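Hey L., structure's done. Input below.
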Amino acid sequence: MSFSFRQIACDTDDHAAMLDLRERILRRPLGLVVTPAEITRDSGDYLLGCFDGAALAGCLILQKDAEGWVKMRQVAVDENRQGQGIGAQMLAAAEAIVQGWGYAQIYCHARETARAFYLQNGWSVTSDTFDENGIPHCRMEYKISKAATG
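Output:
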């Protein structure tokens, strides 16, 4: 299956679809909702969408930090699209974006339920388990290889 990846601008129909996807997949199962503060925070970050035609199939957010890292957060794949390789393709697209920015390191706070997925895609666990939003997470990191940058 062929998907396209593109940046999502805030306050657009694609952004509304992304907010809905994040709420359905990441927030609602925890009894949470996407807050106005989170929506405002989106405007300073890079919002990446995975599209099947015009339909949003997955998304993630990339956030530069002052330490030379990029934090990846709010990774979500539509429940009807999981298991189709979208997550791995989104990681590859995020890596290319981060590499284009001149960064070589990405990290995320991965839910324990996603740990195996990230490990299969070359990420490393770099912390003990900690609680975030009431569920276990760990810090995971990905270093972009020299071969990929040159």
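The two ends are 29 Å apart (CA to CA). The mean pLDDT is 92.

-- N.
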